[in-house]
């Protein structure tokens, strides 16, 4: 008998040693690929830096001081060329990168694209397209021919796109020049911005804080002035949270209003909670400018039949009709810290002053909605994600969520039961993984019913739009996001509903907010993390979220723009 046990022991040891050495070889291979990429990135940056002087420094700095509308105008009028604009923004992007580590690779073809545009512009019968010569930055997960979309996985290195994503081809058709790719968190399913290839992107206001995620390379770049317009993606807040953390504007359109052909998401095959790509920029009008031109004419509608053929409606964006707008500053699931609640109050006052009617709105059962969100994101209990991460080098910031996903399903349920009295929100999250297809079907049914309930409640009040917080915290230290993933209730809700949802800067954290934080109630460990992580944030930007039902992006943008105008008027008056 003893020899059978010994044999099993020896075989187990051999199996285990072989696995360990296979893993060792794999990690070494990934690390070599990472080293090669880090060197390639440096060469890419150095190469661009060397070419900057092909354009006079005074021209570059003159372009760098232009507002977006001045840039558009001077390119249209031929005051500056596409090549000059490109060099000006390459220079700013390098400076932003040195401060925040926001870039993955420069798109070298940008130079020939700009030159081709300038060549065409020499002909008198050439009509310049509306985005002629505008440099645009692209989130790393969006296909650009010849570049890989690693999504922060080292195993994704070298797997280059064979063609551009539709959104990239469209930008090029409109005359824009995609010029640089920006950093993301590993897996994209995080609002931090760190991965084992390109490292951690910092917030331009404070490098110890996150720029948000997953479009964090974009937000850090744009907030530093390194790109006039960027493309982000959002399945739970990945455009909106980075914009909030860095003080810029951005919008997640409803899912099928833009094309997703060739954009790579975090987890594939996820009905009822889909990702949306959208613009990010220093101001709302720039975001509206891009969408206006993408939804005018039928370039987009004739290229991708899955895009709803809803054209841009200027009459809604520019309307003066007074709106009825709902507002809330607490979703009763996660209490926002004082600065975030004040931002909603200030936005409300601005909108009231502009003549709109503001009505208190209590979103129905956000606890249930959050649970549906987690279920729909993790339909397979996290298996797809864990498989990818097991074959990779795991980023430290992602470890808290991986630990949770690794708990066997039955243990998750038991833990949920035990934790309910002391840690009720974590208990909710631990109860969400569907165990089989019939539980999954019920999740989808509950999402459909929730959509109906929310929308009816809005209809009963006659609401055109809603304003609410984007998050519960200002920008936080890099290790915090995945420890308190439940704070995405404010953004994830509108992915679940597939609403148009955008954010705009309203204020910054004040000394008074910091003092009021002392009274932030701590009822469970998550509250404690939020309270601690929100300290030392004086001066950090704070945004408000504006939402409207599907295909009402023009209303959403209009509300955002009016808030932005009101904030500017207030700031100008102070100075
Ligand atoms: C066993 C219980 C585990 C519970 C963990 C559930 C985690 C669910 C996922 C929560 C993720 C929250 C972060 C989302 C940030 C935004 C992500 C985003 O929009 N990405 C864009 C992808 O294109």
TrEMBL record:
SUPFAM superfamilies for this protein: Amidase signature (AS) enzymes (SSF75304)
GO biological process: fatty acid catabolic process
Domain of life from the UniProt record: Eukaryota
Domain Amidase: residue ranges: 85-557
Keyword flag Hydrolase: yes
Catalyzed reaction equations: N-(5Z,8Z,11Z,14Z-eicosatetraenoyl)-L-serine + H2O = (5Z,8Z,11Z,14Z)-eicosatetraenoate + L-serine; N-(9Z-hexadecenoyl) ethanolamine + H2O = (9Z)-hexadecenoate + ethanolamine; (9Z)-octadecenamide + H2O = (9Z)-octadecenoate + NH4(+); N-(5Z,8Z,11Z,14Z-eicosatetraenoyl)-ethanolamine + H2O = ethanolamine + (5Z,8Z,11Z,14Z)-eicosatetraenoate
Active-site residues, record numbering mapped to chain: 139, 214, 238
List of residues binding substrate: 188, 214, 235-238
Sample GO molecular function, one term: amidase activity
Keywords assigned by UniProt, alphabetized: Hydrolase, Lipid degradation, Lipid metabolism, Phosphoprotein
EC number assigned by the record: 3.5.1.99
Hydrolase recorded as keyword: yes
Record-stated family: Belongs to the amidase family.
Protein name per Swiss-Prot or TrEMBL: fatty acid amide hydrolase
């Amino acid at each position: 008998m003893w020899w059978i046990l010994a044999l099993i022991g020896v075989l187990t040891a051999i199996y285990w040693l072989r696995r360990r050495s296979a893993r060792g070889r794999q990690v070494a291979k990934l690390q070599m690929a990472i080293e090669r990429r880090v060197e390639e990135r440096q060469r890419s940056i150095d190469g661009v830096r060397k070419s900057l002087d092909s354009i006079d420094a005074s021209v570059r700095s003159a372009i760098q001081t232009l507002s977006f509308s001045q840039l558009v105008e001077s390119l249209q009028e031929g005051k500056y060329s596409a090549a000059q604009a490109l060099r000006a923004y390459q220079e700013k992007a390098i400076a932003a990168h040195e401060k925040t580590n926001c870039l993955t690779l420069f798109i070298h073809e940008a130079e020939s694209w700009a030159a081709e545009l300038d060549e065409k512009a020499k002909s008198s019968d050439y009509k310049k397209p509306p985005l002629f010569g505008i440099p645009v930055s692209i989130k790393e997960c969006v296909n650009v021919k010849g570049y890989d979309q690693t999504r922060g996985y080292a195993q994704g290195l070298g797997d280059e796109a064979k063609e551009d994503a539709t959104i990239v081809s469209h930008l090029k058709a409109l005359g824009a020049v995609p010029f640089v790719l920006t950093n993301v968190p590993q897996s994209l399913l995080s609002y931090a911005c760190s991965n084992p290839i390109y490292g951690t992107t910092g917030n331009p206001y404070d490098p110890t804080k996150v720029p948000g995620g997953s479009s964090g390379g974009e937000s850090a770049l744009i907030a530093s002035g390194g790109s006039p317009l960027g493309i982000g993606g959002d399945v739970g807040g990945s455009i909106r949270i980075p914009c909030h953390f860095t003080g810029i504007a951005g919008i997640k359109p409803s899912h099928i209003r833009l094309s997703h052909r060739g954009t790579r998401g975090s987890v594939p095959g996820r009905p009822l909670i889909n990702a949306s790509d959208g613009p990010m920029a220093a101001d709302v009008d720039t975001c509206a400018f891009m969408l206006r031109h993408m939804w005018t004419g039928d370039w987009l509608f004739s290229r991708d039949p899955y895009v709803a053929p809803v054209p841009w409606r200027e009459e809604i964006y520019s309307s003066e009709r007074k709106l009825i707008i709902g507002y809330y500053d607490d979703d009763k699931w996660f209490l926002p810290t004082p600065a975030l609640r004040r931002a909603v109050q200030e936005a409300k006052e601005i909108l009231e002053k502009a003549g709109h009617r503001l009505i208190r709105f209590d979103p129905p059962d956000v606890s249930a909605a959050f649970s549906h969100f987690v279920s729909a994101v993790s339909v397979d209990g996290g298996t797809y994600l864990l498989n990818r991460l097991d074959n990779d080098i795991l980023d430290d910031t992602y470890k808290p969520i991986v630990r949770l996903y690794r708990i066997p399903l039955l243990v998750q349920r038991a833990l949920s039961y035990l934790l309910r009295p002391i840690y009720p929100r974590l208990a909710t999250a631990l109860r969400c993984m569907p165990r089989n297809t019939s539980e999954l079907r019920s999740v989808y049914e509950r999402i459909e019913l929730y959509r109906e309930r929310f929308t009816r409640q809005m209809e009963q009040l006659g609401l055109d739009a809603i304003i609410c917080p984007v998050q519960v915290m200002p920008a936080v230290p890099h290790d915090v996001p995945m420890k308190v993933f439940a704070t995405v209730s404010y953004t994830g809700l509108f992915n679940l509903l597939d609403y148009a949802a955008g954010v705009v800067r309203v204020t910054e954290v004040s000394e008074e907010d910091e003092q009021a934080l002392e009274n932030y109630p701590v009822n469970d460990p998550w509250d404690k993390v939020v309270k601690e992580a929100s300290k030392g944030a004086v001066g950090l930007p704070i945004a408000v979220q504006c939402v409207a039902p599907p295909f009402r992006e023009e209303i959403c943008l209009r509300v955002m723009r009016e808030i932005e105008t009101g904030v500017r008027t207030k700031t100008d008056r102070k100075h």
